[in-house]
Amino acid sequence: MMLFDDYLLLALVIVTALGAVFVRDLFSGVLTLAAYSFFLALLWAGLGAVDVAFTEAVVGAGLSTLFFLVALFLTSHQEEIRKQFKVQMMALGSLGILGFLLLFGSVDLPVVGDPESLPSKHVSSHYLKKSLEETDTPNVVTAVLADYRGFDTLGETTVIFTAGIACWMLLRRSDDSAT
Amino acid sequence: MTSSLPGFLFAIPFFAAVVIPVVGFTNQKFCRPIALGALVSLSIVSVIGLSEVVSHGPLSHEFGGWAPPIGIEWVVDGLSGLLMVAISIVSLITLVHAGPLVEKELPGRVIPFYSLSLLLVAALGGMVLTGDLFNLFVFLEIGSLASYVLVGVAGGRSLHSAFRYLILGTIGASLYLLGVGYFYAETGTLNMADLAQRLPEVIDSRAVLTGLLFIVLGLAIKMGLFPLHGWLPDAYTYAPNSCTPLLTSVVTKVPLYAFVRIAFWVFGMTTVSTQIPILVVLGWVGAVAAIVGAYLAIWQESFKRMLAYSSVSSMGLFMLGFSLGTETGFAGGLFYVLADTLMKATLFGVAGAAFYQCGASTVTDLVRLRENMPWVSSALLISALSMVGIPPTAGFFGKWHLVVGALEAEKYFAVAAILVSSMLTALYFFRMFQRVWAETLPLVDPHVLETPFPIKMSLGVLTFGLIALGLGSDLVMGLIFESAIPKGF
Amino acid sequence: MADIVLYRPHFVAFIILFLLGIYIMVVSLNLIKKLIGMYLMQTSIILFFITLAVKKDSTIPIILSSTTAVTPEAYANPLPHVLMLTAIVVGVSTLGVSLAMVIALYRQYNTLEEDQILGKMQ
Amino acid sequence: MIRPHDSVIVHTLARVFIPIIQLFALYVLIHGHDSPGGGFQAGTLFAASFILPVIAFGIQGSLTVLERRAVILGGIGILLFAGIGLVPLLLGEEFLNYGELPIPGMEASAKRHLGILGIEIGVTIAVAATAVSIYYSLRERGEGEGN
Fold first, then answer.
1. Chain B residues touching C105 at Cβ < 8 A
2. In terms of pLDDT, which residue wins out, B153 or B441?
3. Which residues of C touch A76 (CB under 8 A)?
4. Which of B179, B283, B379, B382 has the fewest Cβ atoms surrounding its Cβ within 10 A?
5. To 5 degrees, how large is the angle CA C80–CA B130–CA A151?
6. Domain total for chain A?
7. CA distance C109 to chain A (A)
8. Testing the interface with B: which of D67, D94, D116, D123 to mutate, by most B Cβ within 10 A?
9. What is the pLDDT of residues B336-380, one digit of tens each?
10. CA of B23: which chain D residue's CA is closest?
11. In this complex, which chains have at least 3 CB pairs below 8 Å with chain C?
12. Mean of the per-residue pLDDT values of chain B
């Protein structure tokens, strides 16, 4: 899996991420973010996570971008240009600590692609071996999502429902006379 | 022992929360009875659950019928049962209290208010009862989304503070998720009990250390532990009065519970005090938080902001208690969590009632309570005595056990921190009462409303609860010692 | 250090995206920019989890033949995929709520810059 | 502000794409068992098929009551999901244990297969309706402004 196209996609992902952050025009930023999502979806398809890639393409690149664009249409497009760019030392310092922790911990993480690593063996091998027999579902991701960890999925659907109620509560004022 | 009871602990508030908007669509009047009915039955079921735990040991529920490392399980044991009882009862009382306020403050948004409050209760229950790290993250996010919106719904400053809360809260949740990822990478499991068995083999791994640090950091943001409490004062000050009692009494306690569960049950006492000594650090952080929070509270003019800083101080005391490393300290910390849940619900309830009736929001304004609102001012008096730690209120016994625990552990800085923070607390409440009772009344507004019955009743019940918890502290401490203490002390 | 860059390119990308996201969330004064940072941070964590699921020479976790015994080494680990499906949905829900807050703030203060909002509050 | 686009190309393409998207969403939903996809993806695609005409043609008149309260349909989707899970709990088994659903003459694995399909339908309804509702909430303007 450690192919050339992985490096290429990772580079593209980082470049688009930087672009989305440093473009002044927020429209361009959001559209660059959509491109970023698509590159991520490609990356994940390449890494074998087809369901995640599909969801990222549909939800990340589609729905999130749509929400961003609607918000931009209703507000303003342009980020304020500030003369003096202040570097926040506190923020940079805490980022340095975080980055150090990430690098410090990374040494003992399993190597990418190692089939003998613990996450690939313990619980997940049960899912791979048994899901067809126990749930009659060839797509193991669906079996785990909807059955073995179906309760998480109920929680996840509830998260979206909570967001729906939340947006209703925050933004709709004039119409709530359903008595 | 497997049981279907934890399943009902999830199903009751969840179904009520989803049914409320569907039913409220036809008639808005149904919302409040459904919400209160659900919380009453939730309280009854959780009390039954706790009594079952005391008599028969922990109850577990395997969702989907899959045994733990494969599926997700919920566990009611002494600690989670106790917290579940506290959450369900306190949220019931605070929603009773919110009834008159919400119709005045949030007209036209009654349906989403009740729905979100119940989703919040369901999520807090889920975080308390779950035995799975990722499931905890999902419920953390449901609860967080609900509380961001309940903070921000009043618009203006409240909305801005809610946005900051959202940004910091999302960083906290992401750090937590990242920590879970590190644990998963090292052990291949997400179940807490399974993780507790597998962690000792890889405890020297740097990834486990980093993962634990990320989880503690993420949860510390969520619980508003000093110095990561940046979102807390504004959010508590500007949140609508109908939401603050629920938000301030339970929402920050549950991430604290998650930390306690991970540190003492998944890692175990010996690991977090010797191999990865985070307890030492957190003890000092707690001591500083207790003093600094109380000190900052003295200088606040707004009553709710003063209470917000006193929450920062209380969070420091809990952390101090849990990190003492003795049974008494742990039990005292837990008892103080329960007491503080009641105290914060009472105090913010008083703040809401005062603003509702006579527009009082600053400490000086509280003078108007004196003549017109005997219920509200006596609730204020008793909860303030409890905050300071005067017997026979619950706050006194909480602090007493904390001090005893600190003396047993021979950690004199902790004793000093508890005493100093109590003195500072006494100072700001004394200053408040001096203004309320010693100053002359500016002008009595004859048009002050009669305190609505739900507010009177809920404040009365909370105040009674504070004294009852104090008088029955031996019983509760016995329960804690018997079934809610982790192994390894 | 050099080892990490050479052998763990995904991890390096994850660190860059994660830190960039948090930095923008905390430091940027534009509310939409903050949310772009939030999106980067959330997706970077997904990247971290997905790399845990990779196995060399494996295929996607869909088991087509029911007769032969399944060798887990031949399929990618499905569990992180499931967790990250949840995380993506959680992310988009948080984004929806936060954009609703941004729109509501814009209605009241007519700006997306945090310092100007704070100024108008005084 | 968002206005309906008056280009012929946009209108025609929108008319062509809406049924295709819905058909694809159904395919994704039903084939979630043995190919990538499932409730969330299908729900988002359905939501897209309802949002696309709003972008292309604009909203005719004001929103209908149902459009304002699409989130209720989301609630019904979740109730379908959780209701399937509640049946085994009321029968004394575990929440969401589809293997114990009271369907006579079926093996546990077949029941689980069916249960997965059922909850995926619930998820699809919930996600589609809620996403549409969030979209409407976001684009609705403040009081008095109307559309």
1. 159-160, 163
2. B153
3. 106, 111-112
4. B382
5. 55
6. 2
7. 11
8. D94
9. 999 999 999 999 998 888 888 777 778 777 777 766 677 788 888
10. D72
11. A, B, D
12. 87
CA D73 to chain B, closest CA, distance in angstroms equals 8
What is the domain partition of chain D in residue ranges? Answer: 8-139
Residue carrying the six token digits 């091998």: A125
pLDDT tens-digit profile of B386-414? 988 888 888 899 899 999 989 988 888 88
- Number of other CB atoms surrounding residue D22 within 10 Å: 16
Apex B292 CA angle, B232 and B302, nearest 5: 50
D95/B63 CB distance under 8 A: yes
Contacts of C103 in chain D (CB under 8 A): 138
Q: Is B62 helix (H, G, I), strand (E, B) or coil?
A: strand
Nearest-Cα distance to chain A for C59, in Å, is: 6
- Residue D37 CA to residue A169 CA, distance in Å, equals 31
For residue A170, what are the domain limits?
A: 119-174
Q: Which amino acid is residue D147, in one-letter code?
A: N
**pLDDT at res. D107:** 80
Burial class (CB in 10 A: 0-12, 13-18, 19+), B284: middle
* pLDDT tens sequence across C98-111: 999 998 888 888 88
Position with higher pLDDT, B243 vs B487: B243
pLDDT for the residue numbered A175 = 46
Closest-CA distance of chain C to residue D84, Å: 20
Mean pLDDT of the B117-145 span: 93
Q: Is the predicted pLDDT of residue B422 greater than 60, yes or no?
A: yes
Q: Which domains does chain C have, with CATH numbers?
A: 2-55+73-121 (1.10.287.3510)
Please provide residue B73's backbone torsions phi and psi, each rounded to the nearest 5 degrees: -120, 150
Nearest CA in chain A to B15: A158
DSSP string, B280-313: HHHHHHHHHHHHHHHHHHHT--BHHHHHHHHHHH
Cβ distance B63 to D76 less than 8 Å, yes or no, reads no
Predicted confidence band of residue A25 (pLDDT cuts 50, 70, 90): confident
Between A56 and B439, the higher pLDDT residue = A56
B109·A169 Cβ contact <8 A: yes
The residue type found at B81 is: G
Look at A49 and C84 and tell me if their CB atoms are within 8 Å.
Answer: yes
CB contacts of C99 in chain D (<8 Å) are 138
Contact residues of C toward B, CB < 8 A: 18, 22, 25-26, 31, 34, 38, 41-42, 45, 48-49, 52, 80, 83, 86-87, 90, 93-94, 97-98, 101-102, 104-105, 108, 117-118, 121
Please report which confidence band the pLDDT of residue B179 belongs to, taking 50, 70 and 90 as the band edges. very high
User: What pTM was computed for the model?
Assistant: 0.94
pLDDT of D110? 84
Instruction: Kindly determine whether residue C93 and residue B152, on different chains, have CB atoms separated by under 8 Å.
Output: no
Single-letter residue type at A71: A
Tokens at residue A153, please? 């999925």
Interface of B with D in 9-68 (CB under 8 A): 10-11, 14-15, 18-19, 21-22, 25, 61-65
CATH number of residue A65's parent domain? 1.20.120.1200
In this predicted structure, the answer to whether residue A178 has a pLDDT above a threshold of 60 is no
Residue A96 lies in a domain: no
> How is chain B split into domains, by residue range?
292-489
Residue A94 lies in a domain: no
From CA A6, how far away is CA B297, in angstroms rounded?
Answer: 54
ipTM at complex level:
0.93
Give the number of other CB atoms < 10 A from CB of residue C12: 18
- Greater confidence (A108 vs B138) lies with B138
User: Do the domain assignments include residue A50?
Assistant: yes
pLDDT of amino acid A83: 55
Who's near C65: CB < 8 A, 6+ residues apart? none
Q: Which of A79, A111, A129 is the last residue of a domain?
A: A79
